[in-house]
Amino acid sequence: MPRPRRVMRARPHPAHAWMRRRLLPCLLLSGALYAAKLAGSRVLDAAVRSSAVNARGMMGGRGGGRLRGGGDRVWVHEDSQAFNEQSVASKATHLIIVAGHSVLISGDVAAAAHSDAVWWLYDYQRNRGLPRAIAMHIQAGIRLALDDERSLLVFSGGETRAQTGPETEGGSYFRVADALDLWDGRDIFAEDGDEAAGSATQSTVRARTVTEEYATDSFENLLFSICRFREVTGSYPARISLVSFSFKQTRFETLHVGALQWPLDNFSYVGVDPPASTGFDLRASSEGERNNSLLPFQSDPYGCHTDILQRKRKERNPFSRKAPYELTCPEMKELLHWCGPKLIAKAKVPWNLL
C-alpha cells in the first residue's frame, strides 16, 4: 500500500512575519481613518449646504439685502439710506460735529448705550457712564441734523486704541447709530421705558452723515472736521455746532475756536452729560479737564509744544496715521501746520470773510 503523500508547507519568511505584525495594523487603521473622513466630509457638506440655505433665508433669498451681521442683529439692508442720496450732503452749509471718546470692541452693539464691556475704556473712563454719554452725544448730533436739512453730521475720532486694532472712534459711533436705529431722533432713554417717538417725517440724516477718522484730541476734532466738510461739499461751513461733554465748553469757546480764527458768533456748543446715577462725576471731570487740557492749551493753543499734549497725541495715534487734509484742503495747509504759540493771522484762514 503506498504511503500517503506528504504535503510540504513552506515556512514563512521572517520578513513576512514582521510585515504582518507591523504593517497590517497600519493598513487597518488607515482604512478606518479613510472611512471616518469620508463620512465626516458628507456630514460637513450637509452642514455647509444647510448653513447656506439658512444664510439665504436670513438675507431675504438670493442676492438678499442684509449686508453685515446675522439674524436679528443685522442693521444694514439694501434699502438702507445711501450716503448723499439726492445730493443732500453736498448741499450742506452747517457742520455738526460729534467728538469721539472711545472705540467699539464688541459685536454686541445693542448694548453700546449701557455696557462698559462694549467699549475700550481707559481706567478713568470706567464706571463713569461713558456708554450712556456716547449714545446721548450721538442722539444730540442727530437731532441737530434733523432740525437743519442743510447740515452735515460728522462723527470725529481716529484709531486711538492700540489694543483694538485699527478701529476708529468715528466709525464706531456711526455703527452705534445704525445698530440702535437712532437716525429718526428717537430717545432710547425715555423715562417710561419706551423709546420716545422720533421724527414723523422721513429722516435724511443718515444720508448726511460721514466720519472723520484722524483726530486724536478735541482740537483736532474741530480742525479736521472742518476739512472733512470741505471734502464733501467743496466749500467751508457757514456755521458749526459741536457736541461733547459740558465741562469742555470753556476750552472750545475760549481756546480752540479762537486758535482757528473761527468767528464765535458762528459757533454753537452743545454740552451733554450722563446722569450722576451712571457714576458720572462732573466735578472730578471738570478738575481733570482743567489740569490735563485747559491749562496746557492756554499756553500751547495748537498742541505742538507742551509735553502732556504731545504725549496724548502720540499715545492716541498708535498706528502712525497721518491726516491727508493738506492735500484735500489746500487752503488750510498753513493752518494745519501752524504751531504758535502766537495765533495764526485771520487773513491766513479760508473763512476770514465770515
Radius of gyration: 31 Å
| Number of continuous helical runs | 9
| Largest sheet, strands/sense/barrel | 5 strands, parallel
In round numbers, the mean pLDDT is 84
Q: Could you give the order of strands across the largest sheet? A: 5-4-1-6-7
Beta-strand segment tally: 7
- Considering DSSP H and I runs of 4 or more, what fraction of the residues is helical? 25-40%
N-to-C span: 136 Å
H and E order: HEEEHEHEHEHEHHHH
- By helix and strand content, what is the structural category? alpha/beta
The oligomeric status of these chains comes to: single chain
Approximate shape = globular
Structure in a nutshell:
The protein is α/β, with parallel strands linked by helices. It has helices at residues 14-58, 130-147, 169-179, 218-233, 249-259, 282-299, 307-315, 325-328, 333-337; strands spanning 94-99, 103-104, 119-120, 151-156, 209-212, 239-244, 267-271. Helix 2 (130-147) packs across helix 3 and helix 5 runs parallel beside helix 6.
Can you put this structure into words, describing what you see?
The chain has helices spanning 14-58, 130-147, 169-179, 218-233, 249-259, 282-299, 307-315, 325-328, 333-337; strands spanning 94-99, 103-104, 119-120, 151-156, 209-212, 239-244, 267-271. It is globular and about 50 Å long. It contains nine helices and seven strands, in the order H-E-E-E-H-E-H-E-H-E-H-E-H-H-H-H. The model is unreliable at 32-71 (pLDDT under 50). Helix 3 links the parallel strand 4 and strand 5. It is α/β, with parallel strands linked by helices. 39% of the residues lie in helices and 9% in strands. The chain starts with 13 loop residues before the first helix and ends in a 17-residue tail after the last helix. A five-stranded parallel β-sheet has the order 5-4-1-6-7, sandwiched between helices.
